[in-house]
Amino acid sequence: MIEAVRRSALRASGVVIPSVILVAAVAALVATITAIVGYDPRAALGALWNGSLGTEYAVLSATLVRATPLMLTGLAVTLAFTAGLMNIGAEGQLLAGATAAVAVGLATGQSASRLVTVPLELVLGGAAGALWAFIPAWWRQRFGVLEVISTIMMNFVALYLVGYLVRGPLQEPLHIYPQSEGLPAAARLPLLAAGMRLHWGFPIAVLCSFALWWALRFTAAGFRIRVLGMNPDAAVSAAQIDVRRTAMRAFLASGALAGLAGAIEVTGVTYSLYENLSPGYGYTAIAVALVGALNPLLTAVSSILFGALEAGAAAMQRDAGVPSVLASVVEASIIVLLIAFRELRVPGSVLRRLRAWRPTASDRASATGDPLSGQS
Fold first, then answer.
1. Which of the residues 102, 175, 200, 218 has the least number of beta carbons within 10 Å of its own beta carbon?
2. pLDDT per position as a tens digit, 361-374
3. The CATH number of the domain where 209 resides is what?
4. What is this structure's pTM?
5. SS (H, E, C) the chain
6. 375 belongs to a structural domain
7. Domain count across the chain
């Protein structure tokens, strides 16, 4: 185990140094874009720093609060991608978990203690995310439906389902606003520090990062997931792995992590369910996982980077007048820079991965038998 930790540390060092270069490139990019569109680059960068990492309040009440759902959804994407599953549905699974947590909190928060209510919300939120992931996973195994399509579609179903619920069964008692009633105090996550917004969801997310890293590296289940992601055919023929069962379990665990993110968001930050609860955490999670090189520990670090970027973007709009959508441009640029860097290090690696994900590969699988879909 010590040797494995040493190897992980060496791999991490190979990512940390490029990450420092990446941060510098992002800063230069922000300055360049703000200058091009007519804003003061120094004011924008100053607001970005002050709103994300410049003060203790910014770190504990903005950056880490935003990093928490990104960390959990990033772990969800990391787990799915490691298993070779293109789960793009973390956004919908997050909303499913948030809905379940609010429903449980409103039903039990007035009569049960926090020690009972909050764990129940988190557990059922994770279960709801897993259930939401089960639908495309079952479609994949039963009908061969590509999960990259079905999970995206399930995101929209979840979005409109939340819209219906906050205008119907879960709407607040006065029926004025399209949102649920606020959670009672017993149904809310406690804060980590007085006067700050950071809650106990952040250490839970960090714990999940370590747990997933350990599970993937040192357990038989993690070995099966990694082998499945590398080569499903070899997993069947050489390792005698039940790929259908392994893929289903990985899909459900991925959905549970995203559902837990939603449960933590409503119990620790918003305290109610409403439309547009997530500003796109499930989609940003893909970038978080890729920047983290599909390593759970590095994904946790990557989520803090993206949390700082989003917190800083809000400060740029507030203090420097720079539109916060600039953050989306920067996030997209991070992915482009990352792909370019990896292509420079290993020429052809990105192209090979893109070819491996082309629809024609699925066409071949449907003709010869896909171990993930169970068709032959």
1. 175
2. 444 444 444 556 65
3. 1.10.3470
4. 0.87
5. CHHHHHHHHHHHHHHHHHHHHHHHHHHHHHHHHHHHCCCCHHHHHHHHHHHHCCCHHHHHHHHHHHHHHHHHHHHHHHHHHHCCCCCCCHHHHHHHHHHHHHHHHHHHCCCCCHHHHHHHHHHHHHHHHHHHHHHHHHHHHHHCCCHHHHHHHHHHHHHHHHHHHCCCCCECCCCCCCEECCCCHHHCCCECCCCCCCECHHHHHHHHHHHHHHHHHHCHHHHHHHHHHHCHHHHHHCCCCCHHHHHHHHHHHHHHHHHHHHHHHHHHHHCCCECCCCCCHHHHHHHHHHHCCCCHHHHHHHHHHHHHHHHHHHHHHHHHCCCCCHHHHHHHHHHHHHHHHHHHHCCCHHHHHHHHCCHHHHHHHHHHCECCCCEC
6. no
7. 1
